[in-house]
């Protein structure tokens, strides 16, 4: 390209359509000693590229040269245009006053169409600074002129900006209208970068309207578009962090924000973006229960925003800083006053976060006994319960609940808790992915805790049971949305199995495998991303728990023990014979510690020669019984027992507890889940499926003998034990027995797996079943391990099966000895053939084992779940 070419003027629109190409061509122009006008354009193009994707110091240097060349060219409009670009860069570098001065001069120098473009960029700068009224005024003046000039690109940009400002003010419907108009205009242009930005903005709008799956899908689509252009995505990271936090993925949001900050620092990027990323990181750290990190990030964000004169953003950062300090244990009247001042400032700014600040101020004032102040703050915060997106209404109902509690109205507080949790139910059930449903419950933890406290104080055992059930294992209340027949998703899952199988083989050979591990992590991200995009097929909150129906189904023979945790102490709710009784047991923290000791003991007993550890493990079992059941032990009767533990006690081997060793015991994530399992009808035909995976120490010996016992069972082994074939046979089976190595992923519970011939069978695979087997036995290690997420939710293999039609599961919560498992499994199936339910057959199978330490530990490690 030569300096005299008419194409030089085309470089400015090109920088947002093909940024890298525009920069290369602009550098070529400067190598040929161009005339002043063309030199101004070329330096401006390079400056824009550096401003948005590179080093701010270089950006300012090029833009100042562009301004000087424009002045030499004697073109007022050219100078005005460059001053606008320079002003935006100065604002992004934190030099707010200089930036606004440059923009003001640009408005005065420009005329007509050019002046409208300058007004748009000043409006953008006002938005960056949080001055939304000024931003709307400038864009209001710019849009008619741009439309009259037939400037499609700049009109679309202006409409997108106006929509974004509307979103910041909570006007979602106005934003949607502007985004739709802008999208129509972008469709007739080749501005690929602007199109990607429009998709990103639509993602933000979807989030503001409460559609988290659509927001994640659109943000991922925008990232793919940016990647093709080779441009960084700092603003996208900020927006994705916001969505991830709302979805309960705070740790991921923190990791993304910190990674973006590091990348921005490495290129000397925009100071404004760094401050916004620090704020996102602080919010994420606060939600991830890391107040120290939140304080550090928020304090730095406050300093940067203050230096940039961005009062809107500074107020939000101060809100996070105050909340983090409160979470870290700081209590003082000064902190309450700070929260109230921030709330007042946010109200003045028209910020949707104002109710959150008022709720914080009210909560802290209550903690200090300042009830009059608390009522004043909470009354205003409670107004948000009537309208707005779900999480804003949740804030309002939380404020209303605290008001009622302070006023001594138990009835009013419980009604506020119920209404708030109903809002969250509605939101949660729009989410298709079971992981998102589970994690979203964290938003309701405070309301659930308030209700349980009130029920414990004044409501009686039955009310406490109802409230315990109201927020326990709710992700299992309805089947997850089946993954779509998405060819790309299926391709990723097939590739994942192949890579994982190769990685496992390489690991067994003791060779390094960094490339395979990278590919495996990449495919995991792809699979997870596409599943998180799913919306619920038929949103509903599941059936409401009915204590009367539970007691009726239990009858006179079965007892159900639900362990509720209120203020850190275990409350035992014993249900049966038409009533609910309450007993107080030990501290949850002590029980968790003891459960870990038991798990360590079982791991040792899985190896021959550890007989000496048996008394230690048995003693730990006695202590666990005292902590978890307390005085309820003497009231359990002698019939079958159902245990409903909180999520944090999911690894307790209940058969180890002395009073339960000879009992028929099953475990359920909730009483509601047990009821559904009890009422699940077995499929017709009741066919049996036996699966033997590779690499077992015994070669899966029980499968061969079970095949002889069942006769017509489908046996899958060797190459036949592939994931597609296993899933096809499991679908709708009456009984399935899978002997395969199991792995539990603490870092990604949905990728917990059973090892098949062609690679791992993961939780995401099970969710593709039309109906999971009525009964399933998993005779392998760690299949009954779960990740505890949200308020009281569990993610893992067993919980993936329960909502899909499985009424009973036998699985293992600890490593076991493969050889000792064989006689246990054979005895278990003998009981099933005699017509016993799983829990009773497992009890009898334990009794039939040799009484040495190895076999006893093996029996204790297995648990029956459900009611079949």
UniProtKB/TrEMBL annotation:
A Pfam family: CHAT
InterPro entries given in the database record: CHAT_dom, TPR-like_helical_dom_sf
Name under which the protein is recorded: CHAT domain-containing protein
Transmembrane segments: none
Domain spans labelled CHAT: 619-866
Organism ancestry: Bacteria, Bacillati, Actinomycetota, Actinomycetes, Kitasatosporales
Domain of life: Bacteria
């Amino acid at each position: 390209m030569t300096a005299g070419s008419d194409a030089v003027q085309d470089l400015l629109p090109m920088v947002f359509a093909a940024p890298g190409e525009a920069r290369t061509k602009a550098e070529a122009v400067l190598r040929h000693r161009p005339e002043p006008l063309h030199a101004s354009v070329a330096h401006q193009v390079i400056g824009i590229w550096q401003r948005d994707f590179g080093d701010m110091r270089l950006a300012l240097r090029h833009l100042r040269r562009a301004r000087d060349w424009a002045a030499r060219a004697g073109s007022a409009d050219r100078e005005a245009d460059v001053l606008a670009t320079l002003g935006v860069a100065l604002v992004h570098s934190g030099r707010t006053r200089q930036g606004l001065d440059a923009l003001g001069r640009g408005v005065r120098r420009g005329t007509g169409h050019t002046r409208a473009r300058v007004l748009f960029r000043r409006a953008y700068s006002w938005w960056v600074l949080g001055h939304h009224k000024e931003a709307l005024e400038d864009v209001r003046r710019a849009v008619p002129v741009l439309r009259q000039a037939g400037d499609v690109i700049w009109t679309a940009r202006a409409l997108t900006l106006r929509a974004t400002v509307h979103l910041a003010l909570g006007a979602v419907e106005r934003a949607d209208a502007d985004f739709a108009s802008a999208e129509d205009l972008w469709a007739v242009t080749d501005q690929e970068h602007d199109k990607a930005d429009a998709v990103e903005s639509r993602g933000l709008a979807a989030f503001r309207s409460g559609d988290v799956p659509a927001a994640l899908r659109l943000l991922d689509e925008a990232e793919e578009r940016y990647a093709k252009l080779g441009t960084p995505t700092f603003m996208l990271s900020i927006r994705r962090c916001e969505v991830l936090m709302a979805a309960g993925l705070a740790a991921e949001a923190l990791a993304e924000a910190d990674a973006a900050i590091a990348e921005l620092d490495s290129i000397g990027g925009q100071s404004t973006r760094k401050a916004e990323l620090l704020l996102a990181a602080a919010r994420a750290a606060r939600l991830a229960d890391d107040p120290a990190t939140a304080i550090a990030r928020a304090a730095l964000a406050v300093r940067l925003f203050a230096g940039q004169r961005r009062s809107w953003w500074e107020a939000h950062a101060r809100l996070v800083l105050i909340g983090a300090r409160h979470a870290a244990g700081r209590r003082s009247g000064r902190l309450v006053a700070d929260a109230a001042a921030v709330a007042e400032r946010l109200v003045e700014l028209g910020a949707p976060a104002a109710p959150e600040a008022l709720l914080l101020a009210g909560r802290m004032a209550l903690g200090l006994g300042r009830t009059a102040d608390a009522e004043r703050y909470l009354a205003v915060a409670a107004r948000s319960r009537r309208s707005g997106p779900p999480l804003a209404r949740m804030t309002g109902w939380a404020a209303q609940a605290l008001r009622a509690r302070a006023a001594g109205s138990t009835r009013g507080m419980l009604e506020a808790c119920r209404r708030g949790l109903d809002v969250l139910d509605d939101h949660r059930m729009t989410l298709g992915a079971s992981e998102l449903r589970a994690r979203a419950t964290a938003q309701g933890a405070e309301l659930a805790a308030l209700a349980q406290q009130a029920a414990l104080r004044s409501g009686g055992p039955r009310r406490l049971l109802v409230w315990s059930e109201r927020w326990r294992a709710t992700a299992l209340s309805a089947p997850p949305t089946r993954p779509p027949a998405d060819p790309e998703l299926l391709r990723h899952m097939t590739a994942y199995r192949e890579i994982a199988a190769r990685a496992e083989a390489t690991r067994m050979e003791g060779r390094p495998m960094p490339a395979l591990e990278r590919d495996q992590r990449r495919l995991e991200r792809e699979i997870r991303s596409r599943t998180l995009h799913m919306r619920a097929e038929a949103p509903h909150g599941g059936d409401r728990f009915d204590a009367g129906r539970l007691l009726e189904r239990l009858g006179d023979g079965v007892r159900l023990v639900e362990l509720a945790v209120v203020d850190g102490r275990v409350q035992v709710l014993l249900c049966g014979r038409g009533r609910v009784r309450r007993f107080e047991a030990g501290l949850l923290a002590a029980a968790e510690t003891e459960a870990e000791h038991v798990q360590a003991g079982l791991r040792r007993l899985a190896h021959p020669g550890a007989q000496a550890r048996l008394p230690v493990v048995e003693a730990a079992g006695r202590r666990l019984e005292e902590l978890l059941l307390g005085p309820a032990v003497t009231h359990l009767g002698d019939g079958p027992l159902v245990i409903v533990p909180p999520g944090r006690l999911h690894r307790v081997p209940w058969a180890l507890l002395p009073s339960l060793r000879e009992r028929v015991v099953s475990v359920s994530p909730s009483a509601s889940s047990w009821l559904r399992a009890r009422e699940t009808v077995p499929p017709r035909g009741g066919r049996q499926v036996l699966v033997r995976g590779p690499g077992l120490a015994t070669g899966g010996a029980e499968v061969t003998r079970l095949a002889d016992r069942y006769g017509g069972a489908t046996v899958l082994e060797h190459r036949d034990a592939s994931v597609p074939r296993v899933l096809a046979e499991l679908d709708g089976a009456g009984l399935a027995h899978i002997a395969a190595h199991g792995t539990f992923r603490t870092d990604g519970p949905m990728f917990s797996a059973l090892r098949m011939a062609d690679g791992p069978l993961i939780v995401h695979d099970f969710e593709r079943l039309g109906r999971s087997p009525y009964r399933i036995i998993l005779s392998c290690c760690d299949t009954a391990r779960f990740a505890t997420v949200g308020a009281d939710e569990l993610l893992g293999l067993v919980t993936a099966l329960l909502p899909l039609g499985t009424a009973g599961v036998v699985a293992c919560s600890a490593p076991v000895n493969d050889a000792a498992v064989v006689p246990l499994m054979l005895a278990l199936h003998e009981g099933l053939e005699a017509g016993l339910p799983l829990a009773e057959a497992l009890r009898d199978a334990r009794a039939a084992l040799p009484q040495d330490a190895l076999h006893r530990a093996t029996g204790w490690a297995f648990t029956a779940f459900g009611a079949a």
